[in-house]
Specification:
globular; alpha+beta; 138 residues; 34% helix; Heat Shock Protein 90
């Protein structure tokens, strides 16, 4: 019996310190990984989404533990997972209208990606998103 193996599944895992300088480094690592998969315009969207998610991990985790950036190439999209040692948060509906300055980053991630989410596992917070290789609006 044979097991179906995805046509693509290249993975990169990086650990970056929970500090502001890690945000551009995470963006660079992600763009480098995706450079042969996406147009420059789509990579710009990817970089913006990664910036928001990694910046949130740096700003809100409160952990000295490294932030883990995992990039997985799928058949027609890239899956990005950012895991930190913080307690996490649950985005609240309407947060943008009731908390000035809160919630815009994840709203932006939602607009730039095919889907996203937040999970808690083993005392860690993981924010993940999937972004198509080709912009669906093109």
């Amino acid at each position: 019996m044979s097991t179906a193996v995805p046509e693509r599944e290249r993975v990169a895992v990086h650990a970056v310190p929970p500090e502001a300088a890690s945000v551009p480094e995470a963006r660079r690592l992600t763009a480098e990984f995706a450079s042969s998969l996406m147009s420059a315009e789509q990579i710009s969207r990817l970089e913006l989404a990664v910036t928001e998610v990694v910046a949130n991990a740096v700003r809100h985790s409160g952990s000295a533990e490294a932030i883990r950036l995992m990039l997985t190439e799928k058949d027609d999209y890239l899956c990005v997972r950012v895991t930190d040692g913080g307690t996490g948060l649950v985005p609240q509906p309407g947060a943008m209208s009731t908390e000035p300055g809160a919630g815009y980053g994840l709203f932006l991630v939602e607009q730039l990606t095919r889907r996203w989410g937040v999970t808690r596992e083993d005392g860690k917070t993981r924010v993940w998103f999937e972004i198509d290789f080709v912009d669906s609006a093109s």
